[in-house]
Amino acid sequence: MTSPIKSPSGVKTKAYSYENFQGLDTSRDITSLDTGKQQHLSKMINATCDWRGQMVRDASAKFRKGEFVTKHIKFFGDDETVWIEQTGSGLTLRSDRDHTLVDAHPTSAIVASTVFNQAVQFTSRFRPMYRYNGINFERNQSPSINNMFPAYCASVQRRLAVAGIPGRETQIHFSRVDQDEIFPDDEEDGSTNVLRAGFIDIANLLGSADTITGLGSFEQNRLVAFTADRAIIFKIDPNIDNWLIDDNANINIGCASHNTIVNAGTDLLFCSRSGIHSIKRSEENGILVFSYSMSDKVDILYRELFRSVPNPEEISAVFDQDTAQYHVFFPQDGDFLCKRLTLAMNPEGGEAQPKFSTGDFLNSRCGDFLNGKMVLGTSGGAFEVLKIEDVDDAAITPELDITTPLLWHGSLESTKETNSIILQAAGVGKLIVDAQDDKGRQIGSLVIEVDDTSDDNYFQDVPLSVQYERKWQHRYRAAQYRFRTEGGSGLLRIIGFAITVRT
Does residue 34 sit in the same domain as residue 89? Predict the structure, then answer.
């Protein structure tokens, strides 16, 4: 956006532009976030800041299947989903093909899943382990697992790993290679087959009886065993004799909920009590595996959301590989309420550049992603998220609600005489712009009908979208601007805006 701008009336003005938006920052006061070219925001609902710094309305979603509160969902095969919904007396397993297992779990159960051996494997503490193979839901036939009732599961190097076993909280049990019904206690005494089932007891490694709180895998051959306070990384091979603990791992942060452990490219994302973290390989030496926090800028908000969930194990997450967005769901008291925190990274690789936003769209509480499709479980069944540019008459489109911090237009002390507001936007929708001054007084409101579908303007080398200029004649020291939509569907994004001030 260019500056200065000379209006048709001949009034000389200077434009203060705001662009390259960086998402939420709740770590600083709203009076200290006016950065102009890398502008943070104080509120962001049902929209995200993408890797280009544009504010983009969340995509629409279309009803897929189900009718009750959906508490867990998983893709099977290329397009089929299986999900778990609350049907009054218990939790019922269902599939797109109308296969059903009624009241497989009590309503209080926390269910986890993984895909292994051409089936979706379900685990839940104190309950039998089930699998779905495209034909029906059936109980795992391992004699030992039938009596162990593991809480967590993961697949790594052609093995099914389970943990969270009552009475064996520090142990991880691994199936035989390519088999999901033979575990260590099922093996014959003296078995020497290198592909045999096995187990690891982390108590022998830590020198303490820390309870396992989750399992994750990344880089094909690494299994991560989480406790509440740390993570241990193992190198797993189909040959049991080649298993090693990763001595170079330096992970002193734990996982609060198994269902937040999600693969994001070569990284592993998860939620602790204090924030969102990533486990990744060091780019410097290619050896050290470490964890770092990605949520420093929303530390206060994250802790508030975490404390609001009655049972932290109910927190879940899904990673959208196409948009590089990590959505974390925080179910609230009552079956129909949920809060969402979204971490947007760079889908083109390179530096993560995390940008945060929140959402209340659909009251989603779980989800899964596969082959370019994301499905969210809601209080009223499963919904499929559309591509951001798609328009579907049957879809539901969220209304974005974004608020800036106090913008000072250069000076912290002087009173400004503004002349106009200039908006650069693309897509379709009614955008309402409200403002209040630094004393909380309402100073103005206007409506801009965004209608620019001439091109998608999706990449930085494409010319910028339409500019909308409106009179904005007010006096104030600083102003906080609120952008919200009303109607419209499909893509709508705010590339930047400027306030022209009389000189």
Answer: no
